[in-house]
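hey m, so remember when u said the C-alpha cells were messed up on ur end? i reran from scratch. heres the input so u can diff it against urs
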Amino acid sequence: MTRWEPDLLGDGYERRTIPLGDDPDGEGVVEATLVRRTAPADVRGAVIYVHGFSDYFFQKEMAEFFTERGHAFYALDLRKCGRSRREGQTGHYVSDLALYDRELDEALAIVRDETGDVPVLLSAHSTGGLILPLWLDRLNRRPGGSRGAGIAGLVLNSPWFDLQGKPWMRTIGTQVIAAVAKVKPTTMMKLPATDAYGTSLHVSGHGEWEFDTVFKPLNGFPVSYGWLTAVRRGHAQLHRGLDVGVPSLVLRSTKSWFAREWSPQVDEADAVLDVKQIARWSGCLGDAVTVVPIDKARHDVFISKLEPREAAYATVDAWMGAQGLLGG
C-alpha cells in the first residue's frame, strides 16, 4: 500500500502511486498517480478528473472550484503520462484504451474508501473524455451498474469523439494506420509540427498558465500508429452507442480553428478538435446528455481566457445544482 506524499503543485496537494505491475505492452513496470486537493471540512461529494493526450493534471483552479462546493477533488495521471511516466516508456502509449480500466477502478476504490458514500462526479478532457465513457460503459454492465459504484454524473470538456481532418482519414486512412500498427505499433507517425495550441496556453508564449513542458510539451507528444489505432477502436465503440449509466454534461467551444502557428484566433477556438464532431457524437453516451457550447473557449475550456472560463464554470455549477450534487 502506497501512502500520500507532497505533490509538485505545492501546499494543499498530495499524491500517491497506484502500482499496476508489468506493462501488457512490454515497457516495464507501470503505475498511475492519484493527486488530491486538501478536502473541505464537510464533504458532500467527490470528483475524479482525467487528463487528455500530451497532458497531466496541473489545473489548481479546477480543484479549488470543486472544493469550494464541498467536493473532495482527485485527479489521475494515467500510466506513462505526466507524473506516472518512467524512463524508457513511450509517453501516453497503450495498445488498448481498456487497459486504463485498471487504474480507473483503483482510483475509484481509493476515493470511495476515503470519502464514504458521497456521490462521485467524473470529469475528463479530450482523450480522457473518450477513455472515461468507455470505462463507464463497461462499469455499467457490472452488477449494480455505474450508480451502484457510486458514480453520480460525468462532465466532459472537449471530448475526443472522432478523428479530425479530411474524411478519408476516417475511412481508408484509419485502415492504413491499423495495418501499420500490426507490425510497428510504437513507430511514430509523421505529422505536421505545430505549437500553436501549446504556446497559446503557456506563460512563455501567449498564455497565462504555468505547467511542466516535459509533461505537457508545447508541440505535444508524437503520435504512434498503435496508440491512434486504439483510439480509433474507441471511437468506433462510441459511435455504436454507449450507456454510461449517469447524466452527462459535455462542454465544447463554438468553433474550431486549426493552425500550425499561434494567432489571436487560436485563443478563442478549439485548435485541436472539430467541435462539430463533438456535437454530433455526444448523444452516443447514453442516459441524459446536456451539450453546452462555450463561446470563445479553447480546446480545454477550463484554461480558456477568463470570460469563457467563467462561463464554463457557471455552466458546471448550474448543471451540478440541477443534478442535486450541490447539497442543501
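this time it looks ok to me. The chain has a mean pLDDT of 96. if urs says something different then somethings off w ur setup not the seq
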